[in-house]
Write a structure and sequence with these properties.
Layout lengths: L8 H12 L1 H4 L5 H8 L8 H13 L2 H9 L1 H18 L4 H29 L4 H29 L2 H19 L13 H9 L2 H30 L4 H13 L1 H14 L2 H21 L7 H28 L4 H15 L1 H17 L3 H21 L7
Helix pairs in contact: 1-8, 1-9, 4-7, 4-16, 4-17, 5-6, 5-7, 5-16, 6-7, 6-9, 7-15, 7-16, 8-9, 8-13, 8-15, 10-16, 11-12, 11-15, 11-16, 11-17, 11-18, 12-15, 13-15, 14-15, 14-18
Length: about 400
Amino acid sequence: MKKDYSIFFVPGLILVGAVMRIPFTTIPTVLSYVADSLGVSVNSLGVLISIPLIMFSFCSSLAPRLADKFGLEKLFTMVLVAMFIGSSMRVLNLPSLYIGTMIIGISIAMMNVLFPSIILANQPFRIGLLTTIYTTAMGLSSSVAASVAVPIVKATSWKGLILILSFLILVALAVWFPNTFHNHMTEQDEEKCSISLWKNKAAIALLVFGGLQSLLFYTGMTWLPTMASQAGLSSEAAGILASIYSLISLPFSLTIPTLTTSLSSKNRKIMLAIVSICGIAGTGMLLFQTSSFTYWLIVNILIGIAVSALFPYLLVIFSMKSYTPSQTAQLSGMVQSGGYFLPAFVPTLFGFSFNLFGSWTVAALCLFICTIVMTAALFYTERFEKIQ
């Protein structure tokens, strides 16, 4: 395997991180404008939020196979081209909006899986630093895009917003493209590796952890504002809590990757214990309903700390627990394929349970139990230095 990498690797990685989420996370903030323009109900467009997660679940396992065939950097380039096409075609009509969102979901699924491998292949001794840069770019761009989306739509239209987002993807593609000429091929007996992972208890535990971590994040993002509003808070207060829940990820994306790679095993477990306790305490507090803003602020901070710290940890740990980029891709593909199945469907069931039982108690209890199981799976995985 080649040892060299392009001078455009880090700039390309930053811009890829910046455009990773915004093609689909920006749309929910302007969904009503899209619905009015197309003459459909807002509820009918709600599936646009679920489509990418479904694609994450069903397409993540394809990434290692395609990487074996085309190489890491070349596949990244192909995926960025597909993302640009998918994003641009959304302005045509309603069917193209759905199809384009599916293509975006598939593209992001590929990059999610390949990201740890591509860092390990190019700069294996800077895993923590590059993951920090990547996740920070992702978080900052998502926050900025969400804040300017409505003004852009009011000044132009929702199609204008889509075209701007598509142009940003094109810029990222242009900066990333030189990396294609430093393509790293993966060499692995894929079938043997895949089978062994599904029989590996540590890999299964990592799958459970990854799935429940994603479930906790997307359920919190979707329903915490609604739960707070129904408990007696104003819509403005709920909106402030939602912003805090999102923005709290920034300091953790800056620190967790480096801490994960630099701390000793013992100290890393202490860090993870603190983070996990925050998640358990936060979900436990959901069992009690109150109209206190301070109470809901604490809930959002605690759950936000847990999900914001554990996501970058997961990205880093794929590389740390693998020997080669190919093994990293296989492990990442397995965990993310199964891991995104839960958040693709469970948040909807979480909301349905309120209609079924007339309160959030049952759903909150299930989320609390899931957080405990997530923590147990996390610490079981930490017992192993490598997963093979």
